[in-house]
Amino acid sequence: MKQNVVEYLKQTQDKYPNKIAIEDKNGEISFSSFYQKALYISSNLFKFSNPPPPTHSHIKHHKLSPQKTHHLPTPNHIF
């Protein structure tokens, strides 16, 4: 049984790697390529987010300095 979208996508790309996953007027992408791009994007999302504030009341809250913005180059093979 598929538990979530990631598992569904993984199982689908394993079964139909060359079938078209997404198609529009500009082109198409296979399930295999779509899965690889989804992994790339999701694995880099945390680099762009601020850490969540502490939730424990016994932890003192300190003002955090702004984080530097990370800019990742987009590999040519991704888009």
What is Rg? 18 Å
Helix content: 25-40%
Ends distance = 31 Å
Give the overall form: elongated
Low-confidence stretches: none
Strand content: 5-15%
TL;DR?
The chain is of the alpha+beta class.
Walk me through the structure:
- 32% of the residues lie in helices and 11% in strands.
- It is α+β, with helices and mostly antiparallel strands.
- It has a domain at 5-46.
- Strands 1-2 form a two-stranded antiparallel sheet.
- A hairpin with a 2-residue loop joins strand 1 and strand 2 (27-30).
- The chain is elongated, with a radius of gyration of 18 Å.
- The mean pLDDT is 77.
Relevant terms:
single chain; 79 residues; alpha+beta; two-stranded antiparallel ribbon; 32% helix; elongated
Write the topology of this structure.
Layout: H1 5-15, E1 20-24, E2 27-30, H2 31-44
Antiparallel strand pairs: 1-2
Helix pairs in contact: 1-2
